[in-house]
Amino acid sequence: MDMQLIAVAGLVAVTITLWATRGLPEYLTALLFFAFAMILHVAPASLVFSGFTSAAFWLVISGYVIGIAIRKTGLASRCAGGLAAYLSRSYAQMVFGIVGLTYMLAFVMPSNMGRIALLMPIVLALADRVGFGDKSPGRIGLSLAVGFGTFQLSASILPANVPNLVMAGAIDTTYGLQLSYLPYLILHAPVLGFMKGLALCACVVWLFPDKVKKSIELEPSRPWSPEEKRLALLLLTTLGLWLTDSLHGISPAWVGLVAACLCLLPRVGFVSSEEFGQEVNHRTAIYVAAILGLAALVGHTGLGALIGNEVLALAPLDPTSPFHSYASIVGLSTLLNFVVTANGVPALFTPLAQSMATASGLPLLSVLMMQVIGFSTPLLPYQASPIVLAIEMGRIPFVAALRLSLALAFITFVFLAPINYGWFVFLGWLP
Question: pTM for this structure?
Answer without folding.
Answer: 0.74
